[in-house]
Structures are given as C-alpha cells and as structure tokens.
C-alpha cells in the first residue's frame, strides 16, 4: 500500500503485496488470507514508526474498521494496456504534483454492471527497480463520503505478466494516509475512476479522536402555524394599505422582510431588505410584529435562533 503514505518532502517505501493472478483460493483460505492482510495493516498503524497516527491515537488504537470479507468483491478483470502513454500531473490533497501515465484499464462486471477502472504508473517511482512493476488504482464509489473516506480509496496492482485476466480484490481497498492525519499529500482519484456502485469492501472511514462525539449538524427550519400558506394568509388578513398608497391609485410590487425567530418561537429583529416605500415598509413591520409564535428551528433537535426572509407581493388598484 504505497501511495497512502506520501508525506511532504519524503517517500515512505513499503514492500508491496503481490496480487495472485492465477492461483484459485478457496473461500476458507481466502478469508484467512484477508484476515492476515488486515492484521498486518493494523500492526503497521499500531507499531510502525511511519504510522500516520499520532502517539496518543496509536496508544488507543484497536484496529481499523473494515467491511465484512465478501468474496463477491474479488472479481476477474480483463486488463487492457494503454498504447498512448501521456504524462500528466495527478492532483493531490496537498502541494505535491506527482506525474503519472495511464498504464491501462481493468474491465470487469460487478453487481450486474459492466465497469472499468483506469490503472496508473507513477513516473518517479518506476525508476526504482523494486517498484518497476507497481501500478496504482485510486477510485471512488457510492460509499465515498459516507461509510468510506471522502477523498476516495486506493488499490495496489502489479503489471500482469503473460495474461490479460487478473484478480481485482476490493477487500484490500485502503485509505490514503490523509484519512488519518495531517501533513500528507495524497492523490485525488480522477473522475474516470468513479464507480456508480457501492463497494462495501475493504477499509471504512476512520474517525479521528478530535471528531469523536461530534454530531453532524442537522438543521430544521422554523414553521408558522399552517406553513407557508398560513403565513401568507396571516399577512393578507392583517396588512392594511397605507393611505398615501391608496391615494396614488394603481400600485404593485414586491416587498421583502427579514426577521429572527427565537428559540422560543417569538419574532424579533425585523428588517426590510427590499423596500417599496416608507409607509409600505412600516406597515409590513407592524404586521410581522403581530405574528403569533412560530415553531422554532432546531439543530440536532435543539431549538435555535433562525433568520427568516419572506418576499410578499403587494397589489393595489
């Protein structure tokens, strides 16, 4: 798992697991293989000097969270070599600008769909003999940003020798080190490697210690008795056309008023944000001041102050 571990200024070189291209693995042996793979990963995070975890996080580390092993996510793929190697810079989460070529494509079926992933070769890395056959598969899927890391996940791959039928194992999908700590510059998966299915295999998202216990903010707006129709009916009933407007004859326009609904549902801090005339503005402020209590807005179920804006069409003839 090489490319999850780029940090600014240095390359962390780890021995890469080779993918078995021809040997058939029975289900029990396969589960044991994945269990050993995951135990090795966890030991790196817990004990390795290059672990992305801070010391306090390593002390509390009990292992990464994974999807259950599912052999359906170990698929056969057809490898198609790319004949035109154009060097490009793959964007990263940091300032690093690594150069890659698209080495080929993997075509496979999963969840009843024909899918493909592009495979890339790092131009700097390939200069080192032990990484000469190493390829890289960054990807996103329908779990990205939900159960799995928001930037995406990676797979390691090896240039096939003498065959175009290869194993593609999503149970070994891993996160970039950016998912675990700051200071890393990790490749962002290209759009062409966005899979339209849920890859419920491999490692899940990692919850950093400072994020534990935090809830995602779920706002719910305030509500007038009877909803929008109710508030418009209230204004229509209470609004009195000012005398100066009536004298002028025909008139039409939109006024917009803004006000704060307190955690107790009371209306206050009324402002006209789109004015029609001083008298029309004053009448709108008077009417809003007469409003009954609203059902207050909430964040995660807790009542909170909420600024509400309301446009209102005024017509007189």
TrEMBL record:
* Key word Chaperone present: no
Any single biological process term in GO: transmembrane transport
Residues spanning the signal sequence: 1-22
Its recorded name reads: DUF1684 domain-containing protein
Give the organism the record lists.
Answer: Rufibacter hautae
Q: Which UniProt keywords apply?
A: Signal
Kindly give the InterPro entries that the UniProt entry links to this protein.
DUF1684, TonB_C
SUPFAM superfamilies in UniProt = TolA/TonB C-terminal domain (SSF74653)
UniProt domain TonB C-terminal: residue ranges: 251-311
